[in-house]
Amino acid sequence: MPIELMIDGSTGVARFTVSGEFTLDDMRAAVDRLAADPDYRPGMAILSDHRAIARPASAEEVAGLVGHVAEHGGIFAGARMAIVTDSAASYGMMRMLSALAEDVPMKIAVFLDAAEAERWLRP
């Protein structure tokens, strides 16, 4: 599975690790897994680590992902999502994701430094 999900109850952070090749269907399935996970709580911090991806997401994948998150309604309301990447191309695509997601009721920020992303997620 190119997108792993772990919810850390002790820190209250849901963590995605994206690696290798992935598809829009993989991204949608990961969102669905998080939304359905009994340990997920609305407003929970989400960290998505993209440092091991084989390629950046495409514009079509980004738009499809934003639409899918929006379909989940308020379950992500109040959440803060930090995306970590180490690629300039991926950084640009994830910034596009955060701009497209302005109508989704969650805050999204993109980082090149994992420690900075973790700090941003803390209330």
Strand and helix map with partners:
Elements: E1 3-8, E2 13-20, H1 24-36, E3 45-53, H2 59-71, E4 80-84, H3 88-100, E5 107-111, H4 114-121
Parallel strand pairs: 2-3, 3-4, 4-5
Antiparallel strand pairs: 1-2
Helix pairs in contact: 1-2, 2-3
Notable characteristics:
about 120 residues, 4 helices, five-stranded mixed beta sheet, alpha/beta, Transcription Regulator spoIIAA, 5 strands, globular
Numbering strands along the chain, what is their spatial order in the largest sheet? 1-2-3-4-5
Structural class call reads alpha/beta
**How many DSSP-defined strands?**
5
Report the helical percentage. Answer: 25-40%
Q: Enter the CATH topology name.
A: Transcription Regulator spoIIAA
Number of domains: 1
Query: Shape, please?
Result: globular
Strand and helix order: EEHEHEHEH
CATH class identity: Alpha Beta
N-to-C span: 31 Å
β-strand percent reads 25-35%
Query: In this structure, how is the largest beta sheet organized?
Result: 5 strands, mixed
In short:
The chain is of the alpha/beta class and 123 residues long.
Plain-language structure description:
Helix 1 packs parallel to helix 2 and helix 2 runs parallel beside helix 3. The model has no long low-confidence stretch (mean pLDDT 94). The chain is built from four helices and five strands, in the order ββαβαβαβα. It has one domain: 2-Layer Sandwich (Transcription Regulator spoIIAA), CATH 3.30.750. It is globular, with a radius of gyration of 13 Å. A five-stranded mixed beta sheet has the order 1-2-3-4-5, sandwiched between helices. It is 38% helix and 27% strand. It is an alpha/beta fold and 123 residues long.
